[in-house]
Structure formats: structure tokens, C-alpha cells
Write a structure and sequence with these properties.
Blueprint (H helix, E strand, L loop, with lengths): L1 H38 L11 H22 L7 H19 L12 H10 L2 H22 L10 H61 L4 H19 L6 E8 L4 E7 L3 H4 L2 E2 L4 H9 L3 E4 L18 E9 L2 E10 L7 H74 L2 H29 L2 H6 L1 H15 L4 E5 L9 H22 L4 E8 L2 E8 L6 H11 L3 H11 L3 E6 L5 E8 L4
Parallel strand pairs: 7-8
Antiparallel strand pairs: 1-2, 1-6, 2-3, 4-5, 5-6, 8-9, 9-11, 10-11
Helix pairs in contact: 1-2, 2-3, 3-4, 3-5, 4-5, 4-6, 5-6, 6-7, 6-10, 7-10, 10-11, 10-16, 11-13, 14-16
Length: 588
């Protein structure tokens, strides 16, 4: 970077000197023509006396044009400053000799190489250039001076020579100071650039460390702690060493902001609840941009925190993904003017990384909770199966065994063939009934028709199978293809809930009939199971269910949550029961 800046600086200086050289060459031409017009009018229409100057001007123009072309094409030889200084010095001497020697009006051109030497090289080089010009012009003037020239005639040249030497000395000293000032400026610029580079490197390092930390955990508490740790490290790295910081992460609960992670807050502050509807918190949440605020203790919401009264400045960064706000991150400093745009950019980058990790952590936690809920639901389903087997087929099989034993006794001991035959007939009927019960239970465990033909067809077949073992009328009301908008998972859950509701009605309601209704309501699928039985006190039953664990109704509620549905149970003693399940349709 410093090499690039130095190269650009040399290019600018060379380009400026080349343009000044054009100006001086034009001045040399004008002075030469004017001197000829004033002192040699007889040669006004004759260019012969100006021929040496014209040749030198053409050479100088070609030389300067070559230099500018090299610069324009980005080719700058390493020794260009030395070469151009030598050529400028030589041109000065030639112009002086060609225009009168000691009395040359073009001796002012000597200031050009003297000044360029002072700006580019040490002051001794500038003085040496002036000595070379003075000695060369003096010697040439002495050689070509007409006979009889006195020392008084050389006085103008002596004055000019002393002036050039003085100009060389002064320009050398001034040039050294200018070069030192320029070098100091470049050094400061380089230090500033290095500081900026270090800041960027630290920012990248902090974000990389944060990303590594966040990718290694799915615990949202660790994510929040990592945000504060990396953010605080960045604040101390770029802030004042004598400043202290407080920091916190606020996340939305049901409606308010709560502090879920913090640094250097009192226990009382950690329990503070924020509405997020006033002051800088509301502004950050509304604009979705980081905000730096002075005197945070005067803020209507942040002012509730005791530790904020010791802070002179605060920075608030929203935690936002898309159109959803999760909360804010707040840092406070005991010193004013600590936080800058760099801090805003750093914290914004940190929060952007954190919000992705936070979403992943929340998703992972939700998946784990859903997994646990599914395990509980499946365990309850196994318990229900065991209970149904115990209450139904197990009792029936035990009765069959007893009847067979009784029939065997009738045949062996009493030789009552007729009664034994009747007993075997009743045993056969009981066995057939038991087979139907077992088939019905197998159907409810995994109705294959549900997977192949859908919910409506499965319910129709379920009602037919129930009619084989129970005389209770069950009526299904549904339009054709009402279940086509449901996915297979939702259809399975809805079938289970309806089956559970019908089972409860058969066992406990003492109903004369059961009505099942399936219909669509806007973008929601609704299933209702209604009986005209004796009804019950919903609140009282739910309380008892909560006391003795997950049973029938709790299973239905948990199954409904698996498909993001809602379950409503309404019942009045003596007036029947209605169970209503509402399931949102995906993609609607």
C-alpha cells in the first residue's frame, strides 16, 4: 500500500514538473524573441541569430514530450529524476551560452533545475547544480567575451550568480522542510491506513470467532453469551482503555422485552421488563438499524436500569430476520464519544451472524420438544392399546377359555351333549366377536385405506367396522374430496383424534347417535364429532386429567399440536358433547 502511494506521489510530481517545463520553454521562446526585437531590430526578419535557441527549444520540446509519454503509459524509469535533472541543467547552460553568455536574459531558466533538485534530492545537490551552472556560464562567458571587457562589465553576472547560489541554498533548506512535511504526512496516512487495516482484521477475526462459536452449538443460551463476549472484546479492542462497558441481550417474550443475557448488570436490572414502545428501543425496532445514543439514562425505557445511569453513551442493535424482530442487543459505555460507525458495523455483523444461529438453535429446540412430544404421544398410544386389549380381546379370550373348559366338563362328567353343544355355539359367537374387535383395533392402529384413499374413505370404513360390534348409529357428513387439501400426516392425526373422540363417546356418553362433520372454512380444515349423550363438566375433567397424567383428552390436544391445529371441547351436562378440531391448510 505504501509502495503504491509512493509511486502515485512520484508520478504526480513528475507530471507537474513536466507541465512547468512547458511553461518555462514557452517563456524562453518569448524572452528570446523579445530580446531580439528590442536589442537587435536589424535581425527582426532574420531568424539566423535565434537559430541556436530554436534548435535548443525543439530539442527541449521533444525531450519533455518523451518524458510525458513515458509517464502517460505508466513507464517511469528508476533513474528518471537524475536524468531529467542533468538534462535540465545542460539545457540551462546551453540557453545561457546561446543567448549572450554572461549577459544572457535566459539565465532565469537556471531556477528550474535548482528548484527541482531541492524538491527531489538533498539540499547539497541543489547547491551543486547552481555551482555547475554558474561555473559553466562564467567560463563560457569569459571565453566568448570581447577584448577589453572589464570586471565591472561582469558585475551583473556576479550578481546573478550570487542570486542563483542564494536561491539554491534557500530552496534546499525549504525543500528539506517540505520533503520532511510530505514524508510526515505520508507516514501519518500510512499509520492511519494500517490502523484501519488492523480494525478490519480485528473485525474479521471477531466475526470469524463468533461464527466458529455459533456453528459449534445449538444452545441458544450459548449463542447469546457468545454475542456478548465477542461484542465486548471488540468494544475494548477499539474503545478507550479507561472505559467500562455494560451489555445485554433483550428478547421478546409474549409481548415484552426481557433481558436473557447480560454483562455487569445488577440482579435488579436483570429482572427489568421493557415494552419496547418508547425511546431508542422503539426507534431501533422500527427502523431495524443500529443506533448510537448519548446519555442513555435519560431514555424513558433504558433509564429504568441502574447501571445505565453510569453510562455516557449506548449503542442499540436490533435482532431482526426478515420482517420478524427477536429483540435487541445493547452496549453502554462509561465514556462519551466511544462508539463510532465501526462499532455499529461490527455489532451489526455480529448480530446478523447471531440471528441465524439463534434461529437454528430455536428450530433445534422446537424439533427436540416435538420429538419428545411425539415419543410421549406414541407411549400413550401404546398404553391405550394395552388398555384396550385388556378391556376387550383379553377379557373375551379369557371368557372363551372358561366356556371351553365348562363345555369339556359337560361332556366328560355329565355327558350332557346338548348343553355342551349350546355352550360351544356361544363360545364360537364370542370368538367371532373377539376376532372383529381385534381386526377393528388393528384397523385403528394402521388403516391402510387412509394411506391409499384418504381420510374420508378411512372414516367410512371405520364406521362400517364399528357397526359390526356396536349398534350405536354413527353418521358422517362430508362433501366429496373434502380431505384432498390435507397431507398424509395431517390425515393420520385427524383420524386418530376422531377415533379417540368416538371411543370416548361410546364408552362414557351413553349417546343415542354420533355425528361426524368434515368441512373447509376459509383456509382451515374442520372436523367435528358431536354426540347427544349425558355430557360432562369440561373444566373439572381436564383438571383431573392433568392430575393423573396424559390420557384421552390430553392425547387429543397434543396430537392437534403436531399439525399446528387447535382442539376445542364444549360440553354441558345432560346436553351432549362437541369436539371441534381446526387444522390450517399448508400453502393456503
Amino acid at each position: 500500500m505504501s509502495t503504491s502511494r509512493s509511486t502515485n506521489g512520484h508520478f504526480e510530481v513528475d507530471w507537474l514538473i513536466s507541465n512547468l517545463r512547458w511553461l518555462l520553454l514557452v517563456s524562453v521562446g518569448l524572452v528570446s524573441f523579445t530580446d531580439t526585437f528590442i536589442n537587435h531590430k536589424e535581425y527582426l526578419l532574420d531568424a539566423t541569430p535565434l537559430l541556436p535557441q530554436i534548435i535548443l527549444l525543439v530539442f527541449a520540446a521533444l525531450y519533455n514530450l518523451s518524458v510525458m509519454l513515458l509517464l502517460a503509459y505508466g513507464s517511469r524509469p528508476r533513474y528518471m529524476p537524475f536524468i531529467t535533472l542533468m538534462l535540465d541543467t545542460l539545457l540551462t547552460i546551453c540557453f545561457a551560452i546561446a543567448s549572450g553568455g554572461l549577459a544572457s536574459p535566459l539565465l532565469f531558466f537556471a531556477l528550474f533545475p535548482i528548484l527541482t533538485a531541492a524538491l527531489r534530492f538533498p539540499w547539497i545537490i541543489s547547491l551543486l547544480v547552481s555551482l555547475v551552472i554558474v561555473v559553466s556560464c562564467g567560463y563560457a562567458g569569459y571565453v566568448i567575451a570581447p577584448p577589453g571587457t572589464s570586471w565591472m562589465d561582469l558585475l551583473p553576472f556576479v550578481v546573478s550568480s550570487l542570486t542563483l547560489l542564494l536561491a539554491a541554498a534557500v530552496s534546499g533548506l525549504v525543500g528539506d522542510r517540505v520533503k520532511r512535511a510530505i514524508a510526515r504526512k505520508h507516514r501519518l496516512e500510512e499509520e492511519t491506513e494500517l490502523r484501519k487495516l488492523r480494525v478490519v482484521q480485528e473485525r474479521v477475526r471477531a466475526i470469524f470467532e463468533l461464527a466458529s462459536t455459533l456453528s459449534a452449538t445449538l444452545n441458544y443460551n450459548k449463542v447469546l453469551e457468545a454475542v456478548l463476549e465477542v461484542g465486548e472484546a471488540g468494544m475494548h479492542e477499539w474503545g478507550r482503555p479507561d472505559s467500562s462497558h455494560v451489555s445485554m441481550v433483550m428478547l421478546f417474550g409474549k409481548s415484552d422485552l426481557c433481558i436473557v443475557a447480560s454483562r455487569h448488570l445488577t440482579q435488579r436490572d436483570q429482572k427489568t421488563i421493557f415494552r419496547g414502545q418508547r425511546g431508542v428501543l422503539a426507534r431501533a425496532l422500527t427502523t431495524a438499524e443500529a443506533i448510537i445514543v448519548a446519555n442513555p439514562s435519560a431514555d424513558p425505557e433504558l433509564g429504568q436500569l441502574v447501571m445505565m445511569h453510569s453510562c455516557q453513551q449506548a449503542i442499540i442493535v436490533p435482532l431482526r430476520a426478515g420482517f420478524e424482530s427477536f429483540g435487541v442487543v445493547v452496549f453502554g459505555s462509561s465514556q462519551p464519544g466511544v462508539y463510532t460507525e465501526d462499532h455499529k458495523n461490527l455489532l451489526t455483523a455480529i448480530c446478523n451472524q447471531a440471528i441465524v444461529a439463534l434461529q437454528n438453535a430455536q428450530l433445534y429446540q422446537s424439533l427436540m420438544e416435538e420429538k419428545e412430544r411425539i415419543v410421549v404421544v406414541e407411549e400413550d398410544a401404546r398404553k391405550k392399546l394395552a388398555r384396550d386389549l385388556h378391556d376387550g380381546p383379553t377379557q373375551s379370550i379369557a371368557a372363551i377359555a372358561m366356556r371351553l373348559n365348562y363345555a369339556q366338563m359337560l361332556i366328560k362328567k355329565e355327558h350332557d351333549i346338548d348343553q355342551a353343544t349350546n355352550e360351544l355355539a356361544r363360545t364360537e359367537e364370542l370368538a367371532r366377536h373377539t376376532v372383529k374387535e381385534i381386526r377393528h383395533m388393528l384397523f385403528t392402529l394402521r388403516p391402510l385405506i387412509l394411506e391409499s384413499q384418504g381420510l374420508q374413505a378411512a372414516l367410512e370404513q371405520y364406521i362400517i367396522k364399528l357397526a359390526e360390534t356396536d349398534d350405536l348409529p354413527i353418521h358422517l357428513h362430508a362433501k366429496p374430496d373434502v380431505d384432498k387439501s390435507l397431507d398424509k400426516n395431517a390425515q393420520g392425526v385427524i383420524f386418530y383424534i376422531i377415533e379417540e373422540a368416538i371411543g370416548n363417546a361410546r364408552k362414557h356418553a351413553q349417546a343415542s347417535e354420533i355425528q361426524i362433520r368434515l368441512y373447509l372454512q376459509d383456509s382451515t380444515f374442520v372436523a367435528e364429532v358431536q354426540d347427544d349423550g349425558r355430557g360432562f363438566d369440561v373444566d373439572a375433567v381436564q383438571t383431573r386429567y392433568d392430575e393423573r397424567g396424559s390420557l384421552g383428552m390430553i392425547n387429543m390436544y397434543e396430537r392437534a399440536e403436531l399439525v399446528s391445529g387447535t382442539l376445542a371441547i364444549s360440553s354441558v351436562p345432560g346436553k351432549g358433547t362437541q369436539i371441534k378440531l381446526s387444522v390450517p391448510l399448508r400453502g393456503k
